[in-house]
Amino acid sequence: MRFYSGVSFRFRKKHLKWLLIPLMALLVRFGLFSFLIPKAYALVDNNTAYEITMPNYDELLDFNCGEYNFREELDSILQYTDFDNLSFNISVMNRLSSSNQTYTNTVDIYFYPKSNLANNFSVYYVNASYLAFAQRNLPFSSNFKVSSISFNPNSCTDLGINTNWGILTNAIENNTIPTTSNNQYEWPFWYSIGNPGSSNIIDKSYSATYWYYFSSNNLYYSFGRNQSTSESNVYFKKLHLIDNDSYYTINNGTNDGPLPSYTDIYGFSGSNNNTGNEYLIGNKDDLDIIYSNFEPSSINKFNINVSFKTDINKINAYNYMQNLDLTNYNCYGRINHNDNYYSYEKFSGCTFEVNTDDFDFSSDNDLVNFSIDNLEIFDSNDNKITNFSSYDKLFFYISFQYDDTSLDMNVRNLNFTSSSNLLYSDFMRGEIYDNFYDLQLYSKLFFTNTGFSNNLSSNVSVTTKYDLFNNSVFLYAQKYDLSTLEPKDSNLFVASGSFQNLKVNSSNNIGYMIYNKDTSLNNPLSRIKVDLILMRDIIVSYNGLVGNNYYYVDSSGNIVNNTIDIDYSDDLTTDLNDLGGWLPPGPLDSLLNIPLHYTNKVITSLNQSCEPWTFNFVFDKPFTMPCFDTFYEEFPPSAIVFLEVIPGAFILIAYFKHLYKKVDRATSLNTSSDDEWGVL
Amino acid sequence: MVQDLITGFFNFILSLIMTLVEIVCFPLNLLFTNLFPDFNDYVTMIYTGLDSAFDGLSWALSLIPPAIRSVLLFIATIELSLLVVMRSSHITAKAWKLLQKIKFW
């Protein structure tokens, strides 16, 4: 075409590329890539699975469950979530009624963030309905059939407070069903979780003969077995895995059947001590092994599970504890029953000294945060333990429970490697449960000393899951000198956040565990001394894309604003941030992380709203530069076009040309073997 | 069976790589720790200093018109993605070449 101005444009083949982008957008818009969407299948037998039609998302959500409308409830959740990270899976599972021995297939709908599953999600679930019918023997018979998928609102219980345990077993995303060498099923494990902090989970009337449930993808792992409605007959009660930190509890009652073959079980769950021995599974890998040995002859109810990703930027709150009453304590030690699993039993005669001199519970001080200030552990001869080479794990937990709310803070999994004396991968955790949701907050500590007697340093990162309504989070972490178990100065880290306030009015549990490496408890503890220090009105605000700003309390009790690498999201910048810690802990790792830290900082700054800039001006007086937030808003739209749109378009066009050249070169195969990797 | 083999193989490779990385990092870390015992403090100091230098960054960037800022963010995101992908690929390739040269198996 030719214009009278003399400017001409001839459409050439090379211009086709400019059509590609809108073309691709159209293809995506009209679902031509829908074949990429994973499909859901119902298991039939070892080799066959029926595809399940994925229901419409909106229809799926729009049903009433109890007094709640699921969609409305979800919306109330999603205002705090990054919706882009939501997805859901549908899978079919089987349910066995012990009365008539019929099998019913049910559906789990499961929402979860697409990545970074270990972090920033909470669980939202509701009982759905029974869907299709099938008969099943173990292994599955071939007449298994999925007839339809629908929801029966009448079968829903109240949203969020249903504590039935679910099982999601048969969903697979391909047609192959893995089996172990002895032809047992390796179940695709999904999870359903009720109220992991509450004992009323097992008080529900289960008709199932026994039950279990699983999860995958770094979410909860849960399974259990229920032989009747009687609590005493329940022996798999809870399994709860989050990333590297997991636990399940077992009630090892007299009517229990044989325990499944565990390859490795370690750890401890502090809740529900009255139900018998409790065990902890350490990590997902262990679970995989366990599952392969676990005969999945159980049938269950099902849930709709929604997990979602928090938008930490919207959290601005504080939490408090009230009337802290440290009256009960427990000292635990590990007993190795055999090579496969351990149990934890209380040390007899162990005393726990808790110093709370600094606490003030006057009526106008109902906001109480505390931190462990001093830890001392004494052996059976009442000598202070300063060398932990005979222990392989150091586990600290403190648990405050009142009514239906508890707060647990754990420091766990200090792995003592005898050969190199390396101390690594500590894990600190704060948890709050209420009767609605599971709320957990984690801090990972990486201790980087090269010997027990050396001082520890730690790199703290925090991720949080949170619930919607009545929960708060509280966390602290502190570096310790393990030779004395005294905290190092200026290492205290405190983070807290809530939507509303949390009141913990009482406590009944504080414990400290030393894990023996030996098969017997040859070093029982006699005394543990803990000083708690008070921190008050800790307000944590998370700003910016990644949420780097937080407040902490230093050793003098001063609240200091600080910045730390906190992983709240799975966006690119956070991934960059997360590279810290990939190398073996040490100065090298810290050093190499500096450019990533500041790259992230620039990106974050680019994306966040303006903060007034304060700096020292003449005569050392602080001067605050006001923001120009409203500056551009005053511009007329026509000016905006010239000021923003046109320059932005030019920049974009220039960049796309640049990008095209890069991609073209990278894909032209004209590059040498050396630069084809780094050509971009 | 095959899955176990594959898993085992990858675990072996990964542990091999991790061991190599640790072997490489160990003397360096040791060097830093012993020669510069306060190194961590200095790294912290660098972080603190640069952080304070970056304090006004969000203010300064807010001077840029919002639409332009979004464009820059978009470009930076793509560039960083490319950088991360390419660099990690590059490093992976290098590590693989190194492993090939060792040929101890």
> How do the helices and strands follow one another from N- to C-terminus of chain B?
HHHH
* Mean pLDDT across every amino acid position of chain B: 77
Helical content class of chain B? over 70%
- In the predicted model, the low-confidence regions of chain B spanning at least 5 consecutive residues are none
Largest sheet of chain A: 9 strands, mixed
Q: What percent strand of chain B?
A: under 5%
| DSSP summary, beta strand count of chain B | 0
Q: What is the CA-atom radius of gyration of chain A, in angstroms? A: 28 Å
Number of contiguous helices of chain B: 4
Structural class category of chain B: mainly alpha
Number of helices of chain A: 7
Structural class by secondary-structure content of chain A: alpha+beta
Tally of strands of chain A: 35
Strand content of chain A: 25-35%
Query: What is the end-to-end distance of chain A?
Result: 36 Å
Describe the structure in your own words.
The complex is a heterodimer of chains A (680) and B (105). Chain A has 680 residues and is an alpha+beta fold. In chain A, the strands form 11 sheets. In chain A, strands 15, 16, 19, 20, 21, 22, 23, 24 and 29 form a 9-stranded mixed sheet that branches. In chain A, strands 5, 6, 7, 8 and 13 form a 5-stranded mixed sheet that branches. In chain A, strands 9-10-11-12 form a 4-stranded antiparallel sheet, with no helix packed on it. The longest helix of chain A has 31 residues, at 637-667. Chain A is globular. The model of chain A is unreliable at 33-61, 63-68, 73-329, 336-342, 360-372, 389-522, 534-559 and 561-580 (pLDDT under 50). Chain B is mainly alpha-helical and 105 residues long. Chain B has 4 helices and no strands. The longest helix of chain B is centred in the C-terminal third of the chain and has 37 residues, at 66-102. Chain B starts with a helix and ends with a helix. The model of chain B has no long low-confidence stretch (mean pLDDT 77).
